[in-house]
Amino acid sequence: MKKPRIAAAALAMLVAVLLLSGCGAKDGNIKIGEVTRSVFYAPQYVALEKGFFKDEGLNVELQTTAGGDKTMTALLAGQINVALVGAETSIYVYQQGAEDPVINFAGLTQTDGTFLVAREDKGAFDWDQLKGSIFLGQRKGGMPQMAGEFTLKKHGIDPHGDLELIQNIDFANITAAFASGTGQYVQLFEPQASIFEKEGRGHVVASFGTESGKLPYTVFMAKQSYIKNNQEKIQKFTNALQKAQTWVQEHSPEEIAQAIAPYFKDTDMDILTSSVKRYKEQGTYAETPAITEEQWNNLQNVMESAGELKEKVEMQSVVDPAFAEKAAGDVK
User: Fold this and answer.
1) Residue-wise pLDDT tens digits, 316-326
2) 206: closest CA among 257, 254, 161, 147?
């Protein structure tokens, strides 16, 4: 009569072991929602492709949630754990009085990633050429649009008075809209800007990244409650990002393009390479995940200029620097 009891006890122990091992696997899972698929985010793809996340014991699942509003909705709804999106979205959530605010814990890019693309080549570019033109802009309140307006104002152009600004086209459809004939100028990320140049559909005439200065343009963020309950996981995530950022700094555009190619299967290698080169040359890719006070202040200046900032938000209210600081010190 004792053998069945022993067998039952052994079975119970086996089930417990399987449950515990399952929990361990689950603990390493992180779902990321990226605001768009772009060469702009090269260090993220490097971290995935080079196995830096796996080296930290993480199983990262990446999905594209087109547009900052959709990405933030997915994060707040718990459909993703971590969002890769503009830092301004965390300010919007904070200013709405959220009980569980969104916290920025690691920066990926430190400049705007869009380029001004003109439909016609008019020779030497002057910003005054935009006056009276039809400009296909980005979503109101999003960082691309705010950085664009900030730049135009810097050059003495009223974005809502000196040109016809189109902002009613969904983020995912802007490229197609310009390709079909809408607008004389458009604001595009890479590799779309380089693709248009190669196809003869447009000409890159200026960089909004160079013009608008350094700011925490795209960051990894999560709900405060998630970070509190998953501090070790967030640290491992940030460590992997630091490894990828260092790798990108130390390797050539050609090598980076080869590494991220699986995420851009329909893009020619020469286009990938030229896109990466543009971003590297203007210092777009952050060297560490740290978000600085200077960058944060510039971000709010850009938002204020666009009329999208109710009041200044102290950096410590929505930024946790601890993970980036530890990664910068520990990761070699």
Assistant:
1) 999 999 999 99
2) 147
